[in-house]
Amino acid sequence: MFAAYAARIDRDQPLSGLELGDRPAPEPRPGWAIVNVKAASLNHHDLWSLRGVGLGEEALPMILGCDAAGIDEDGNEVVIHSVIGQTGHGVGPDEPRSILTERYQGTFAEQVAVPAWNLLPKPKELSFEEAACLPTAWLTAYRMLFTNAGVRPGDSVLVQGAGGGVATAAIVLGKAAGLRMYATSRDEAKRKRAVDLGAVEAYEPGARLPQRVDAVIETVGAATWSHSVKSLRPGGTLVISGATSGPNPKATELNRIFFLELKVVGSTMGSKDELEDLLSFCAATGVRPVIDTVLPLDRAREGFAKMAEGDLFGKVVLTV
Question: Contact, 285 vs 176, CB < 8 A?
Answer without folding.
Answer: yes
